[in-house]
Write the structure tokens for this entry.
Amino acid sequence: MNKDENNTQYSICTICDIGCQLRPETEDGKLISMKAHDNPGLARNVCFKGIAAPHVHNHDERLRVPLKRVGERGEDKWEEISYEQAMDEIAERLKGVVDEHGPESLVVSTSGWNTQTTHSMDRRFMNALGSPNYISGVSLCAGNTAAVNKLTYGWFPFADIANSKCIVLFGHNPRKHSWTPIFNMINAAKANGAKVIVLDPRISDQAETADVHLRLRSGTDAAMCLGWLNVIINEELYDKAFVDEYTTGFAELKARVNEYPLARVAEITGVDAELIAETARMYANADSACIPWTPITDMQISSTSAIRLHSILRAITGNLDSPGGDLLSGFNPNYISESELGNHDMLSAEQKAKQLGADIHPAYTYRAQEMLSEHTQRVWGQPYADIVMGCYMANPSATFRAMATEKPYPVKAFFTLGNNSLMSYPNQHQILKGMMNQDLIVAQEIFMTPTAMLADYVIPGDVFTERNHVADSWNWRAGLSLSQKVVEPPEEACSTFEFWTDLAHRMGFGDLFPWQSIEEILDHRLTPSGMSFDEFSNKHYMYGEPPEFQKYKKTGFGTPSGKVELKSSILEELGFDPLPYYREGPAVSEEYPYHVFTGVREDAFFQTGQRQVKVLRDRSPTPKLFMHPADAARQEIEDNQWVKLQTKTGEVTAKILIQASMKEGHIRVPHGWWYPEMRGTAALAGSFISSDAVLCPDDPEFLDYEQGIPHFKGFPGRIVKLDEAPAGMSEQVLAG
Ligand SMILES: Nc1nc2c(c(=O)[nH]1)N[C@H]1C(S)=C(S)[C@@H](COP(=O)(O)OP(=O)(O)OC[C@H]3O[C@@H](n4cnc5c(=O)[nH]c(N)nc54)[C@H](O)[C@@H]3O)O[C@H]1N2
Ligand SMILES: Nc1nc2c(c(=O)[nH]1)N[C@H]1C(S)=C(S)[C@@H](COP(=O)(O)OP(=O)(O)OC[C@H]3O[C@@H](n4cnc5c(=O)[nH]c(N)nc54)[C@H](O)[C@@H]3O)O[C@H]1N2
Ligand code: SF4
Ligand SMILES: [Mo]
């Protein structure tokens, strides 16, 4: 194993998805601690989840050998089998499904963050087999944001936060234990005089320390952006030279924003018109300004418009690809990209046309994204740009519906890797129905999750200290960083790279998977740099490209017009409104009086994970709904009381946390709660008791038109008091 001159090794933490490089320490072949980085630029990157990695990696309940279902589906009864037997049987059964129903009957669901070293072998496998039906948790995160950004200027920017003079956070709330490096960058910029504008219904941590806080109603971000544009365009605060030379559709955009005078925007958002105008001026007049990516606008009924409005604001204020603005990095020239390894041109047009949901909601599917291919090739040198692995996906709601109903065609095999699929999309009821109707389910996991419990085969996964990697942030940023294997995976645990490679060989197309190990594919990927993986790991724990700004002056933008498309020619050709707009979500009523939003990430966990890790669970034993004191008083609800939160789709049970920082009339529901300790006593480890996905609808009136993204920010709900906790809760949950 390579160590640098200081005898240090580096592993990139994948407990969450921001990827801090930390220093693992081992003893007798076992990970014993994770330390902060020794590089001063990274030394502050310590969050307690990363430090807790040994408790995750060495956990007693970690899966170590393949399991085959022996009971009914979901009954959680297993026999242990060898890896060879499991892979042989999976290949045989998959061949059977494909022979009967065609290759499109295979769906793969993943998220990619945690499994890290797939090297796009999943897409390569699917493309060789002939299935377009790949879905991912990133369809509610940076993946769909990337795809929609591409429609406007051909790439997905990463904000140059540390060098910015004005940072605008649309809900996004980085903290010491949530996306720590971004939190550090914001603090560095503030120390340099940057102003921070936060838009959030709650007084979040970032709102508390911001220069200005706009407490908008949940789900109204697109209206807010239209209000900002109204001020910026009518007061002529935009960059005229840039608009003239590098954009299309400015006159039409101006006409559209004039439909949103500030009085209308103030009424929709609930924010004072003068404050909207003042902050729009602050943003537009700053020496440099950025709008960092936020997941808040990728989960709303006006998501496509809201994301496009961020793109438009960045562009017309002259902040695109300039210092302190939002940078378009392109592919790293020293590393073969996942976009290329995925072999997307191998999948036929006929099979691509079968991608589920593409007919109605095409924005992040092949149908819309391939309209960019020749332009991506022109500007960035290759046709496919699968940035954050979210640019060629099927629609999850359409996919689970097809799994449940066999319409428009049967979907009979479901593979889920490093993704707790049951709980990670809207409408958990439909997901369960879809999974129960499968002939073959395979899960690759490190713990027995509710999703894995529904599988026919569970393959144990490795973790980040057990595999080598070179990370390029999925083409979001151009730098490369090293992640080293410091311990062996337990027993038969494997990487997702090995899983797909071994399966491809059994399926008869192993020649397309010539790399025998992760190190071999890393050597291959590093070929353009002239370094082998060994050489890279000896010298370059971090390896950046010098930033080159405003590359578009040489190349144009990677869109059909070569310009920033304020009016999107692709959306127009697909039959959608080519200009951004605001659409109101389903209204609250007397029956369902609250605006409910999911999220506010918890410091102790990443998404649905780590509930079985004692040091983390002790910090947060019980799921909590947030409620404003005035709402609690009106309903005579006390702090820590058990309640039900009900929507038309379902109900969850949790405790109330009364918080003055909440916005009146709003309820926060946490994401991803299940109870590993209830395994064996409650169906699917209590995953229908408190999970937000049980509540979140995906009926058409709750879906964004262009992407089919569910409205997680401001759907109607009601609170019903309970006299006691749900049955079967542990002492710790009851006391929490
Ligand atoms: N209902 C609902 N759905 C959501 C969201 C929401 O708020 N509500 N949020 C969305 C967002 S923002 C995101 S980013 C996605 C996140 O979706 P995911 O990234 O899928 O998130 P997790 O819930 O953490 O599930 C990851 C699973 O991978 C396992 N795992 C961890 N490390 C490894 C590993 O190294 N190898 C393998 N094989 N498995 C591993 C964990 O045990 C866990 O069960 O979910 C999205 N889905
Ligand atoms: N500890 C920890 N850190 C994490 C994660 C984790 O699970 N745990 N998950 C990671 C992932 S994958 C993601 S995507 C990020 C998400 O993290 P953030 O981007 O910070 O998002 P949230 O914490 O879900 O919510 C942030 C804020 O959005 C506000 N909000 C709610 N509705 C709206 C709305 O309609 N508009 C606006 N403008 N604001 C609204 C909420 O009040 C809340 O304060 O966190 C990452 N960091
Ligand atoms: S913020 Fe924490 S959990 Fe996320 S990558 Fe960094 S150390 Fe790991
Ligand atoms: Mo996310």
The pocket of molybdenum atom (ligand 4) is lined by residues 141, 295 (CB under 6 Å).
